[in-house]
Design a protein that fits this description.
By secondary structure, the chain is of the alpha/beta class. The protein contains 14 helices and 12 strands. It folds into 2 domains: 234 residues, Type I PLP-dependent aspartate aminotransferase-like (Major domain) (Aspartate Aminotransferase, domain 2, 3-Layer(aba) Sandwich); 125 residues, Alpha-Beta Complex (Aspartate Aminotransferase, domain 1). The protein starts with 15 loop residues before the first helix and ends in a 9-residue tail after the last helix. The structure holds pyridoxal-5'-phosphate.
């Protein structure tokens, strides 16, 4: 069913199609061409990262991270249960034992106070997920990781161009991963990136990404032939996609400003409902600079949420929720997890609702969404936006 106001809509802001034409006419459509290099350089400079490599998705960047960390059977990985499956699968497919911990009720991010008690001598990696583009408490997480010699892999799929204490998300841990999927802030259909400031990781990530070969070194003239030197797979995206992405990255500030406008309009307009205790609004803690990846509200319970989704649907508006907590999923239950083990995650995942949010969402459309929510609660809207 087509909605009058969809949940997400892919968009173009500038020279996307022109750059794609340039990539194709320029004679290179495979990876690591001119536009891939331009994207990587732009991200390295802007985010102060030593190494950025474009990948086919954030999922593949996370899989590369698991390989870089040398994950094998029985190694333990600590992560939130309230996340997308790829955060878990990347480590699970290499045999890791997953230790899910609960999230904070204010940001829905990994609760750093629960981290230390989850660490054992088998812990190899901690994976903070920056939900909605709002940072996890990275100082505390890094300190605990350093103390126990554990690697920090930031799942910053939703956190591109967001900051924690003046550092860009994805550059604060040992490895960071981004997504450029069409549902994220900066898009190319399917795509991602791996970031690291760690030299050995940077060197090895090039090899893992190029099917286990030293082809990148060969193209730089550092070796005289290229050959199989390590484990690896095919994680290099086409330069056609990089061309699309480069046009988006060039307009990062404009895209972020537009998203901030949408976020602020929702926030201001829905405040009266929060004041009456009917909904909760998202929190951005001090020290965090959001990239305004999404706008969610929290309802009182699951029944209210489902009824609101239906009400919005009847008004032609698609609002969605996620995630089924990974620990209560069929795979999570197979690991021995049960409902009741992570109460904050379970409660929040039943109450969260994401409102339509995309670059081209107009003020009038936001107004209709807000009107429909007020109507659902039988509350009059005082004044205009
Ligand atoms: C979107 C997302 C991913 C996966 O990104 P892809 O580029 O689609 O592989 C991973 N983790 C989180 C938290 C995400 O939101």
């Amino acid at each position: 069913m087509k909605h009058r106001i969809p949940f997400n809509k892919p968009f173009m802001v500038g020279k996307e199609l022109y750059y794609i034409a340039q990539a194709v006419l320029g004679g290179q459509t495979s990876g690591d061409g001119r536009f891939s290099k331009k994207c990587q350089q732009l991200l390295e400079e802007r985010f102060c990262s030593k190494k950025v490599l474009l990948t086919t998705s954030c999922t593949s960047a996370l899989e590369m991270a698991a390989m870089l960390c040398g994950i094998s059977e029985g190694d333990e990985v600590i992560l939130p249960s309230y996340t997308f499956v790829s955060t878990a699968n990347a480590f699970y497919i290499r045999g890791a034992k997953l230790k899910f911990i609960d999230v904070r009720p204010d940001t829905l991010n990994m609760d750093e106070k629960l981290l230390e008690e989850a660490i054992t001598e088998r812990t190899k990696v901690i994976v903070p997920v920056h939900y909605a583009g709002v940072a996890c408490e990275m100082d505390v997480i890094n300190e605990i990781a350093n103390k126990h010699s554990v690697v920090v892999v930031e799942d910053a799929a939703q956190g591109v161009n967001a900051k924690y204490k003046d550092k860009y998300l994805g550059t604060i841990g040992d490895i960071g991963t981004y997504s450029f999927h069409e549902t994220k802030n900066f898009i190319c259909g399917e795509g991602g990136a791996l970031l690291t400031n760690n030299d050995p990781f940077a060197l090895r990530s090039e090899i893992i990404r190029e099917k286990g070969t030293n082809r990148s070194q060969f193209f730089r003239g550092q070796v005289d032939k290229y050959t199989w030197v390590d484990k690896g797979s095919s994680y290099v995206p086409s330069d056609i996609l990089a061309a699309f992405l480069y046009a988006q990255l060039e307009n990062m500030d404009e895209i972020t400003a537009r998203r901030q406008g949408i976020y602020n309009q929702y926030y201001g307009a829905l405040q009266p409902l929060a004041d009456r205790g009917l909904i909760e609004l998202p929190t951005i803690p001090d020290g965090c600079e959001s990239n305004y990846h999404m706008f969610y509200i929290l309802l009182g319970d699951n029944d209210t949420r489902m009824a609101l989704i239906d009400h919005l649907k009847r008004n032609g508006i698609l609002a969605v929720f996620h995630y089924v907590p990974l620990h209560t999923s069929p795979v999570g239950q197979g690991m021995g997890y049960q409902s009741g083990m992570l109460p904050v995650t379970e409660s929040l995942s039943e109450r969260v609702l994401r409102l339509p949010f995309y670059y081209e969402l107009s003020e009038a459309e936001i107004c209709s969404v807000v009107d429909a929510i007020f109507e659902f609660f039988s509350v009059d809207r005082q004044g205009d936006l």
